[in-house]
Design brief:
The chain is of the alpha+beta class. The protein contains 15 helices and twelve strands. 29% of the residues are buried.
Length: 530
């Protein structure tokens, strides 16, 4: 009768509406494209209208026409598609997501499958009847409900189990994040991603102490800027360092030197429950990120100081070379008598003045070469030359700087050719000789020896100074290195660093053999060509 058909029509509409509700539930997690959403609505409405128009019989036992059978199949197919599609989508969406989100999406997929099972078993029950079928549907329902509950409200112990596989990965990532992030924005962006992964969150952003947005995730910077003032008021009003909650958002205060900033994590479509375990983890994480941001800021300031120091060395060395050349020229002319006779007492100090001007010029030359090296402008002009002659010339050039020492030069009679830049090669030799003079007592021997060692030419400079401990040797060739035991000796701290870099540009090396109280031997090696 009419009432029975009305009941059937209402049941068919509700059945299709439940499928539509499930597909829209899926849309809240993984949005559908507007054309697809419109197509689904059109299909459900069309099937519903056809079902009503076909006047389906109230009892399944009644005879069905071919059209009514087709309509029943269409209704079931559309409804099943509304369940199977979210089930597959949730499962596929779980791949590549954070551990907590992945587990919850899989739980949703299993829960959707459970709903399908409840309907299927219920349909079988209505046909077959009996206590067994009723018990089966009760069991499927009992299994499905906890799965769906876990998807929305996972307990802390279960979240820990979900998170465990990512624990080692998180520790490695945090180590790299804190030590190797090149700037604050990069560090903040990486930190934001892991903050969301820790609790299965979705969108988030980092607020700098000045109120600007340092990084954002799954939310535009413009949207974050609109929301940020409210979040700033929240964490500025807090007394401690613990994360703060506001609705479905958690705020992690960042205590930085410039002031207080924050990481803001908004819960995703699968709303996490921020319990005590998550809050403690986030507080520890925020402390690490605060330290990391401070490290990056400090590194940036140190780099700026290094650049300023290098620029100063470059400018100062270039500006001082001219005046020092003039001073050295006039001192040489005075010593030669070109400017007339001078008193004997004044003439007696000229060698010392000339020696000191040579020392200053040598330091300026080191500074100029170091500046060129840092700027990438130190290009070698190699030629095949006899390094024995180059060592002899370098030694003659620094005799004034090593006065007071017994200079012992041991050179082979045969040629020892190598592809070298003569000027830079002699810089290394002169630097080793002047260092030996500075750091060994007056009157002691400084030995310079040239030898062949296999396919290499070796220049060895040996002194009888105080020696260098193994701990200090590890820092000896670094830029601006100044050992505590030699702070009384003036120098730029560039010589050995520059010398080793030049040696390695020649495909050779500069090494040291030393022990405390036993002097030092520096060996400068280059590949030989004969």
């Amino acid at each position: 009768d009419a009432r029975s058909r009305l009941v059937v029509d209402v049941m068919a509409v509700l059945f299709l509406a439940s499928g539509y509700g499930l597909i829209m539930f899926r849309d809240t997690f993984v949005p559908l494209r507007p054309p697809v959403r419109l197509l689904i609505r059109a299909a459900i409405v069309t099937v519903g209208i056809v079902a009503i128009a076909s006047q389906l019989p109230a009892s399944p036992a009644q005879a069905h026409t071919a059209l009514q059978n087709a309509v029943v199949v269409a209704v079931v197919a559309v409804w099943a598609a509304c369940l199977l599609e979210p089930m597959a989508t949730f499962w596929l969406a779980s791949r590549g997501t954070p551990a907590v989100e992945s587990a919850r999406l899989r739980a949703l997929a299993l829960g959707t499958a459970g709903l399908l099972g409840v309907v299927v078993v219920g349909s079988l029950t209505s046909v077959a009847g009996g206590q067994t079928a009723t018990l089966l549907i009760d069991l499927v329902t009992l299994v499905t409900l906890p799965v769906l509950y876990v998807a929305f409200f996972p307990p802390v112990w279960l979240r820990r189990i979900w998170w465990q596989p990512e624990e080692d990965q998180f520790r490695r990532a945090l180590h790299d994040l804190l030590l190797y992030s090149p700037d604050r924005r990069t560090l903040a962006q990486r930190a934001l991603g892991w903050a969301a992964r820790l609790v299965g969150g979705d969108a988030g952003y980092v607020i700098d102490p000045d109120g600007s947005i340092l990084a954002s995730r799954q939310i535009s910077a413009e949207e974050a800027e609109i929301e940020a003032p409210e979040m700033r008021e929240l964490y500025r009003s807090g007394d401690g360092h613990a994360p703060l909650r506001k609705g479905s958002t958690v705020v992690l205060p960042l205590d930085l030197q410039e002031g207080r900033g924050a990481i803001v994590i908004a819960t995703g479509r699968i709303t996490p429950l921020f319990g005590d375990d998550e809050m403690n983890r986030l507080q520890q994480y925020a402390s690490s990120i605060s330290a990391g941001l401070e490290r990056v800021a400090l590194t940036a300031r140190v780099q700026a100081l290094e650049r300023a120091k290098s620029e100063f060395l470059s400018v100062a060395s270039h500006e001082l070379r001219g005046p020092m050349t003039v001073i050295k020229g006039y001192l040489t002319m005075l010593e030669a008598g070109s400017l007339g006779d001078i008193p004997a007492r004044a003439r007696s100090v000229l060698p010392l003045l000339i020696s000191k001007s040579d020392e200053v010029n040598w330091m300026l030359e080191q500074m100029v070469e170091a500046s060129r090296l840092e700027e990438g402008r130190l290009a070698l002009k190699k030629r095949r030359l006899d390094i024995v002659d180059l060592v002899r010339a370098a030694t003659e050039g620094v005799k004034m700087l090593v006065t007071g020492h017994d200079l012992n030069i041991v050179l082979p009679k045969a040629r020892l050719d190598a592809e070298v830049d003569p000027d830079r090669f002699q810089i290394v030799v002169r630097n080793l000789l002047t260092n030996a003079s500075k750091y060994s007592p007056a009157g002691t021997e400084i030995k310079v020896a040239v030898r062949r060692d296999g396919g290499s030419g070796v220049v060895a400079v040996t002194d009888h100074g105080g020696g260098i401990s193994p701990e200090n040797q590890a820092h000896l060739f670094t830029r601006f290195a100044r050992l505590k035991s030699t702070q009384h000796v003036h120098g730029t701290g560039l010589g050995l660093w520059l010398s080793r870099e030049i040696a390695r540009m020649h495909d050779g090396d500069l090494t040291v053999q030393s022990a405390v109280g036993q002097g030092s031997t520096f060996e400068f090696t280059v590949p030989a060509t004969n």
